[in-house]
Specification:
With about 220 residues, the protein is α+β, with helices and mostly antiparallel strands. It has two domains: about 110 residues, Double Stranded RNA Binding Domain; about 80 residues, Ribosomal Protein S5, domain 2 (2-Layer Sandwich). About 30% of the residues lie in helices and about 25% in strands. The chain has a four-stranded antiparallel β-sheet with strand order 1-2-3-4. It is flat and about 60 Å long.
């Protein structure tokens, strides 16, 4: 029962009604942290999804998979829905989450909350030797990601190539702000969750490595 659908439009988030339970949440509500860039530069953990609601109000969400899972217990067989959701912005942030519930709606909402907590910055650039436009339309270098048996390699592509990848990869890259890419995949890619997580891990790796452009930017 795998399908792709968009969740219902989110209700406007009221900052005044939010009562933070973490120190980072209180800093965000009080205005001490006013941008998502400052949050990641300080290395502060995200423990409340409301933090993302405040710092990234234009966050997009997309459901990439819904499955019916069953569990055998002493009382009999229990069935629940499992949803996988991708969140992101065109400015280089992406997150993935999954949620389980007896109904599809609550499962999607749980997945969205976990995807916000798992949000990570993505390093974008123009790493293709065929382009050199310096616009952040691709990745600055080749990156790999692995989850389970699935391994994904993202290769920089020149502007205009588009997303040369499977549909699951396209959803994650589009929400991360990547517009041109070549990709290679290995393993059981029919497992949507592992497939999407492998792409997510590859994008996380892009932010853990410094490029020559970062050295130049630091010298300035």
């Amino acid at each position: 029962m795998s399908r792709r659908r968009r969740p219902r439009p989110r209700q406007p988030f009221a900052v005044e009604e939010w009562e933070p339970v973490t120190s980072v949440g209180r800093m965000v509500k009080e205005g001490q942290i006013s941008s998502i860039e400052d949050l990641f530069q300080l290395g502060l953990p995200i423990r409340e999804p409301q933090i993302i609601d405040v710092l990234l109000p234009d966050l997009q969400e997309e459901v990439i998979d819904i499955n019916l899972v069953q569990k055998q217990t002493d009382a009999g067989e229990k069935s629940r829905f499992k949803a996988t959701v991708i969140v992101g912005t065109d400015a280089g942030y992406v997150g993935i989450g999954e949620g389980k519930a007896k109904e599809i709606g609550p499962a999607i909402r749980k997945a969205i909350l976990r995807a916000k907590i798992n949000l990570t910055p993505v390093r974008r650039g123009c790493g293709s030797w065929e382009c050199g436009c310096r616009d952040p339309h691709s990745v600055p270098f080749k990156v790999d990601g692995k989850t389970g048996s699935v391994r994904v390699t993202l290769i920089p592509a020149p502007k205009g190539v588009g997303l040369v990848a499977a549909d699951t990869i396209k959803v994650v890259l589009r929400l991360a702000g990547i517009h041109d890419i070549w990709s290679r995949t290995r393993g059981n890619t029919r497992t949507t969750l592992n497939f999407a997580r492998a792409v997510y891990e590859a994008l996380r790796q892009s932010h853990r490595i410094m490029s020559p452009q970062d050295w130049t930017r630091g010298a300035e």
